[in-house]
Each structure stands twice: as C-alpha cells, then as structure tokens.
C-alpha cells in the first residue's frame, strides 16, 4: 500500500507540470485557435528566470581581509553579496536562500511581456493560416528561443536549489515520507489552476473570454474588442507556463532543452483531455502523470520492458480511437 501511495504522489508531481503546461496550451488553442509549439519554450524561459534572479542575488563585491590568508599566504579576498551588505547577514542570506519562490514575482511581468510580444509580433499573422503553418512557425520559434538560452547560459544544467527549510522530506501520510519541495510544487499547481479557473468563471473579463471561445463572431458583433482580450489571455497562458518552469527548477535543474522534453507530452495531454477543454487538460495531466508513474515501477518494467516510455502514447491512442474528441473535448473540434 505504501508503494502504491508513493507512486500516486510521484504521478501527481509529474502531473502537476503536465497540467500547468497543458492548461496554457489549451487557453491559447481555445481562444486563438493556434497550435503553439513554442509553449514548451515558455516553460523553459520561466525556469531560467529563476536562474537569472539567483545570479542577480549572488552578485558580490570583493574586499581584502589582512587578518586571513589564502593557501599561498596572500591576504584573503572575501566575496560579499550585495544583498547581504544592504540588508544584513541574516536577511540577505534568507533572500538568497528563497530565490526560487521570489522568482515568481520576477517572472510574472517578464512572461506577460514575452507572451504579448510573441502574440502581437508573430502569432497574430497566423490566425487564419492552416494548423500546419502554425506548427512550423511556432516550432521554429521554440528552436530559436532554445538556442538563445543555450548561448547565454550554456549547455549544462544549472542548479536552482529549493529553500533550505523545504529541501528535506515531510511525512505526508503516517509512515510515508516525501520530498517537501515536490509537495510544495503540487500545492502550487493547484493554486495556479484554481486561480485561472476562478478568473475565467467569476470575473466579467473571464466571462467575455469564455463567450468568445464559444462564439467569437457573436461577441464581436456586440461591440466587444475580443482580440485584445485574447491577446491578454495569451500573456496569461505564457505566465502559467513560466510559473510552472520557475517552481520546477529545484526538481529538475534547468537546461536549454527542458522545454522540448515537456512539449510533446503536454500536447498529448491536451489531445487526450480534449482540444479546447480546460478541465480536460488538467484532468488528463494528472491522470497521465499517475499512469506514467505506475509504469515506471521496477516490476512493471521487468514485465513489459520500455512500457514507461510509451504508456502515455498507448493511452492516447486508445482514448482517441474510442473517443476522438478526447475525454472532455467539445464535439466537432477533433473530429
């Protein structure tokens, strides 16, 4: 039973990332009708926002301490981060230690601006083009963004450690220990998902957006500039992907290809959940994450070698053969 519960927890952990990325993908497809293959790159950029803030907070100045010497006998050179000099030893060290959560505030405006520029500068020109054209141009954009990150940050993964207070394990259930940061990531994903659904469900802006997703032309005839609202939704979708990347850094060290690693799986999640269905994207993300976790168990791999690599695609094939629109997809979208 403990092993089963651990696999469920692992699945919810993986499913959190799938659900957040798929949620942003579905927001873009549902509002703009665009198949955005650059969405994984937004996840990667979010992770590197955390790396960037960490480097900014660790900027230091050097002083010479004549009372201490290095291994050559020369006066020791001491590096002191500016934040420690400005805020004091304890406060400055705490700011550096909590750089990943603080990167949320750093990443939100950056991701909103990137989403806005991406939509206004490129995506808007492909609204009425075939999906194949959208896939090609956004996939090309993803490669460009990936190479820019590689040029600035290098090809090696960069560690972004969790705060010391959250770097250990917690007892989630009696006798079951689990990494604290993974629990935080799962809870964080629930908060973000809940915030997006609440925004769409209970605000006037969100209600107009949902109406535009259902019937764009009618909303436009009412004198509402739905295009501006959809542009903002693209920015929000970019923000969701970016926040998912920021908080994922301590789980998997950011690297320039992490966006591509999640992109294909996230599109499978969207298709399984149903193109254009926000609840379907979230449900499919957690479901496929749990299935992938169970398929990674040692006895399962011994029984069916390689099943952990293809389980998501097998499930996708079965669901689409039985229900082409996906689990919660709207009729006529996928057919």
Automatic annotation (TrEMBL):
Domain of life: Bacteria
Subcellular location: Cell membrane
Keyword Transport: yes
Single Gene Ontology MF annotation: transmembrane transporter activity
One of the protein's GO biological processes: amino acid transport
GO cellular component terms, semicolon-separated: plasma membrane
Membrane keyword on record: yes
InterPro entries referenced in this protein's UniProt entry, alphabetically: ABC_transp_permease, BCAA_transport_permease
Pfam families named in the record: BPD_transp_2 (PF02653)
Membrane topology: Multi-pass membrane protein
Signal sequence annotation: none
Keywords tagged on the record: Amino-acid transport, Cell membrane, Membrane, Transmembrane, Transmembrane helix, Transport
Residue intervals passing through the bilayer: 15-35, 95-114, 183-209, 230-251, 263-291, 303-322
PANTHER family the UniProt entry points to: ABC TRANSPORTER ATP-BINDING PROTEIN, BRANCHED-CHAIN AMINO ACID TRANSPORT SYSTEM PERMEASE PROTEIN LIVH
Family: Belongs to the binding-protein-dependent transport system permease family. LivHM subfamily.
Protein name: Branched-subunit amino acid ABC-type transport system permease component
Organism: Sagittula marina
């Amino acid at each position: 039973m403990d092993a089963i519960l651990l696999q469920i927890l692992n699945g919810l952990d993986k499913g959190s990332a799938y659900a957040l990325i798929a949620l942003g993908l579905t927001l873009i497809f549902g509002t703009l009708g665009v198949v955005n293959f650059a969405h994984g790159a937004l996840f990667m950029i979010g992770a590197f926002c955390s790396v960037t803030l960490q480097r900014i907070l660790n900027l230091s100045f050097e002083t010479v301490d004549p009372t201490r010497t290095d291994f050559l006998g020369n006066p020791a050179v001491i590096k002191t981060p500016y934040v420690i000099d400005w805020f004091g030893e304890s406060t400055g060290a705490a700011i550096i230690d909590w750089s990943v959560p603080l990167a949320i505030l750093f990443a939100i405006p950056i991701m909103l601006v990137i989403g806005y520029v991406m939509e206004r500068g490129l995506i808007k020109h492909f609204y009425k083009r075939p999906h194949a054209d959208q896939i090609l141009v956004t996939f090309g954009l993803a490669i460009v963004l990936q190479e820019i990150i590689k040029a600035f940050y290098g090809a090696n993964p960069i560690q972004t450690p969790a705060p010391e207070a959250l770097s250990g394990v917690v007892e989630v259930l009696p006798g079951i220990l689990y990494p604290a940061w993974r629990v935080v990531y799962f809870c964080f994903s629930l908060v973000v998902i809940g915030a997006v659904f609440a925004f769409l469900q209970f605000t006037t802006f969100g209600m107009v957006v949902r109406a535009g997703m259902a019937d764009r032309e009618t909303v436009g005839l009412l004198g509402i500039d739905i295009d501006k609202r959809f542009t903002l939704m693209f920015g929000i979708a970019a923000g969701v992907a970016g926040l998912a990347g920021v908080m994922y850094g301590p789980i998997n060290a950011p690297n320039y290809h992490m966006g591509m690693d999640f992109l294909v799986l996230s599109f499978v999640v969207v298709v399984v959940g149903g193109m254009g269905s926000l609840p379907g994207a979230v449900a499919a993300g957690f479901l496929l994450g749990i299935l992938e976790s169970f398929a990674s168990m040692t006895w399962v791999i011994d029984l069916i070698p390689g099943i952990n690599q293809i389980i998501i695609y097998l499930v996708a094939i079965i669901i689409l053969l039985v229900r082409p629109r996906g689990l919660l997809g709207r009729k006529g979208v996928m057919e």
